[in-house]
Design brief:
198 residues; globular; Stage II sporulation protein M; transmembrane; SpoIIM-like
Length: 198
């Protein structure tokens, strides 16, 4: 079974994962003023990564981002073993933090928000977010198999089948995250610096 065949087969779960992410993003934008305390802990985690990377250069930053994102993706995937509760929560919260951060940057940044999105988020986000959504989609399916096994298969066989599918997709997820981390560590700072200086 090829990875992209598995992805095509599970587009419904991918769409549901995307819907949860967008829901979180909208909550982060619409209820920005009410979310300062909730979002603070997530933003502090991001700040810690940035602080650790200060003295290590782009390579260290890329490694820290990759490690953090791989862990986050695995949590979304493994959350399926717990009826997808942690997976659903993780997708909504990831969207919420992105939405909150966009509004925060729009209020505090020295450069236009479109430039921050175009040069600071999109280059790596176009790879990073699909990786999270793929992990979330397989996590959601895994949880669903506990409740509604595949036709003609037992619950355990359905779960094992979904685990096998997830293992086929995992290299795609890791490749996306690796590329995104390299872009965020090496390319994004150059793009932002170029825009500010131009």
């Amino acid at each position: 079974m090829k990875p992209f065949a598995v992805i095509r087969k599970n587009l419904g779960y991918l769409g549901f994962a995307f819907s949860l992410f967008v829901l979180g993003l909208l909550i982060g934008v619409i209820y920005f003023e009410s979310l300062h305390e909730l979002a603070k802990q997530f933003l502090q985690h991001i700040e810690k990564i940035a602080d650790k990377a200060k003295n290590g250069g782009s390579m260290n930053l890329s490694w820290l981002l990759l490690k953090n994102n791989v862990i986050a993706s695995l949590v979304l995937l493994i959350g399926g073993f717990f009826l997808s509760i942690f997976t659903i929560y993780g997708l909504v919260m990831n969207g919420l933090v992105v939405g909150y951060a966009l509004v925060l940057m729009g209020k505090t940044a020295q450069v236009p928000i479109w430039a921050l999105v175009a040069f600071g988020i999109l280059p790596h986000g176009l790879l990073e977010i699909p990786a999270f959504l793929l992990s979330g989609a397989m996590g959601i399916k895994l949880g669903y198999m506990w409740l509604r096994p595949l036709p003609g298969r037992s619950r355990w066989r359905s779960v094992l089948y979904t685990i096998r599918e997830s293992l086929y997709v995992l290299p795609v997820i890791l490749a996306l995250l690796l590329t995104a981390a390299v872009i965020e560590g090496f390319v994004t700072p150059i793009l932002l610096k170029w825009y500010v200086q131009s």
